[in-house]
Structure formats: C-alpha cells, structure tokens
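Quarterly update, task 2.4: zinc ion-bound model.
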Amino acid sequence: MFLAMACPAAQAPAVPDVARIVGSAQFREAKAFIRGDHERFVRELIALTEIPAPPFKEERRARAYLAMLEQHGLTDVERDEEGNVMGVRRGTGGGPMLAVLAHLDTVFPEGTSVKVRREGTRLLAPGVGDDTRGLALMLSIIRAMNAATFTTRADILFVGNVGEEGEGDLRGVKYLLRKGKYKDRIKQVIAIDGGEQGSITRGGVGSKRYRVAFKGPGGHSYGAFGLVNPAYAMAAAIARFSDVQVPASPKTTFNVGVVTGGTSVNSIPSAVSMDVDMRSESCAELAKVDAAFLAIVKSAVADENRARSTREGRIEADPTVIGERPCGETPMEAPILKTTAAVVQAFGLKPSYGFSSTDSNIPMSMGIPALTIGRGPGGRSHSPDEWTDVAPAGVAQSVEVALAIVLAVAG
Ligand SMILES: [Zn+2]
C-alpha cells in the first residue's frame, strides 16, 4: 500500500475497465435476462421473507436457501457448522477468492408475522428488505451470470450467512473468516446489505456491548435499611456514564438500553443489571469510551460500599461482554472501492461512502478488502412496516449494478 501511494504511475492498473464490462454484448444479454427473470426474483423474495429467521433461529430459512443455491450450478454447496450456507462459482483461476454475502437472519423475534403484503410496487413485511432482498438479489446475480455465460478469474463464494443482527454479533461471518474451510482463501468480500444502489459502506462501526450485573446482600427495605443497595450503585453508574463526552466526529455513541432487576418493592435488591451499547467509527475512540465506562462502574460500586453498611456483604459488579464488533476501514484508494465506485458511476449514479455496522466489519478488521453495497430501494428496516420496492425497472437496476460490481471485482 505504501508503495502504491508513493509511486502510483508505476502501479499496474488496479481498476478494471468497467465501461467495457457494462457496455459488452454479454452484459446486454445479462440485462435482457434480468428483465425476464423479474417474476422469479419477486417470488423468491416473498418465499424467503415468509420463512421466519429470528437471531439464532435461521435454520429453516438456511435450509430453504441451500436448496435454492443447489439449483444454480454452484459447486460445493453446503452448510457449515455455524449455520452459514454457501456454494462456489468456479473461476478460470488466478484471481483471489471473492466472497459475496447476504445475511439470513432478521431482527424480528419468533412469532412475528412475516406475511408479505403488497401495496402498488411495494412489498411490506418484517425483514423483506434487510436482508432478504439481498438474498434474492444474490440468486438473480448468479442466474444472470450463468445465462450470459460470464466467466471470472476468481472463484466466487456465494454465502447466505447467519448472525448479522443484534446479539448474533456477526457470528456467521466471524466463523467464515476465522474458522471456516475457506478462511485462508477469501481475499475480498462484498456484502449486499445496504440501502440505495449508490451507497457504499467502506467502514465498519465498531461496537462493544456489556451486561453488567450489580449484586449485593439484599434485605428488608425497612428492617435492613442502611445496607448497601446495588440499585444505587447502578443508578450512580448510569448517571455518571450519561455525562461522558464523546466526539461527534468520528461519530461515537453510547446507550443504556435495558435495566432490570430487584425482588419486590419492600426489598433491597440483591441483584440488578443493565445492558450497555457503545459504538464508534474510530477504534481509538471506542477504546476510550469503553475504558471510561468500566472505570465508572468501578467507582460507583466503591462509592456505594463506602456510603452504606457492608456488614451483610459488599456490592460487586460484573461486566460481561455480550457483543463485540471490531471496527475497520477499507481505504479510499483500495482497488475494490475504486472499482465499485466506477461501476456505480457507469450506471449514472453518484457513489456515497459511509460507515456502518455490517458483516464487512470482520474482514475490514482483518485487513481483507471489503465493502457493503446496496440492495435497492426500501425503507423502515427493523420495523414492522418494513418495505422494499419491486418496480421492475428498480429491481433490474439493483441486480445489474450488483452484478457489474461482482464481475468487476472478481476479474
Ligand atoms: Zn442487514
């Protein structure tokens, strides 16, 4: 990277001729195919959306997706130990393996109605966009590649992965890249999990999450009055944490999202707990707010043990990490980013670059070039009235842009 920046003129062209790919007869053939494939895209999107896939319960949808991948001429179609399903489209050789990801899980708990409703060109249902549209898009891309007989240098690993949302904590992509059978072969990653076509997520917002249990001896609210109270320690910790100053840029945030505990209104609680979320675009800022939080918990506990009697026992706090998404960034000059931006521009769209928390965090944190690209128009994701637009022209553009990016990156 240093050399490339020091003498760009000496570098081989890292960005393929995107205009040639998009203007080729083969790509025109793919476009015609994509238009004819519209009904199937919508049918598969609805079918997949209506198979619930709550965090840690993606199995039914994973099996259905595995069966779909099997119909697409891939080799080594399989489900790994973590629950990811995948298959390889073989390249002609010589290129670094590209993994294309879309996540199987949704944020919605078991029992949520996932019946798809139609309103005009919109489909509405929890999860229909995030990321079920990404899953359906991936199948259309493979079909279009097959129909137009595209070959790539690199092998492409198409993956429907588990565990992107919430407490899933990126477990699917972590397994894929740290333990899975392709861990040493995957050299670039594209996740299809963004909004509009032009949006390119080039940075991973890191996060750290804790559940902190504050425990003490407990006692009668009247009879044992004066004993240490874990609720006071936790309240003090929350109040002090709320005063921590974080920078607006790089954007850094924190939240106490869940507080719970206690026995009854007339008992000094023996245990209370809180769930805390911290995020930052910057690894250094995330580490700072993390350290500040842990110090605050410690001091709030010490102060409560000083303020009231510990004759029946002391307050103790036990922060447990319940989520950790490493941060990372794909530099602006990385070939994968320049290539993707060139494709977006070739379609007359304006690329926009953002930071977010997606499956790309993991490869980015490992120094593997990675991006998250758009899946097309939609909105209200993570809400019960989530929607995605399936007007044929929009769908065709989503598939075409993603296809061109995959082709250009896979060489
Ligand atoms: Zn998503």
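Highlight for this quarter: The CA atoms of residues 360 and 370 lie 6 Å apart.
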